[in-house]
Amino acid sequence: MNNVNTRSLSFSEWIRQRRLQLRLRQAEIAEQLHVTEESIAHWESGRRRPELNKVPRLAAALKVNPRDLCRKAIDEWHPALHDALFTDRPQPMPALAAAADDHDSGRKFLPPGTSDSSALEAGIIVRDGLGECEQLAE
User: Fold this and answer.
1) Could you confirm whether domain 11-86 is CATH 3.20.20.190?
2) Which residue has the higher pLDDT, 50 or 82?
3) Are 19 and 29 in contact (CB under 8 A)?
4) Is the pTM of the predicted complex or chain greater than 0.70?
């Protein structure tokens, strides 16, 4: 698939090279994606990047596997997410590792002053976004 997964080219360089291989103009790609020609120019220069939801349609326009192009984009733009999704052993996030340590040590995640999970009552807590909350009985 023309080496979409290689890290030798950036996403922007790769889409430009692929478009040129297909002998397509930026305007043709822009028309297929319903964006401006300037958007394509920005993507190819690396000044901007497409929204992730446009990457599968860009892949279709460039006649490449959408999964591979999405993987390339995520690898470049969100490397930690890429590693979490596509590597065998993702690196643990520090906050999650600390939570796992607390769980393993027997410490419970309860509100302050609560010593046992049986002390919690069932109910629904409703927040209004302003810090106010109300518990509704079931």
Assistant:
1) no
2) 50
3) yes
4) no
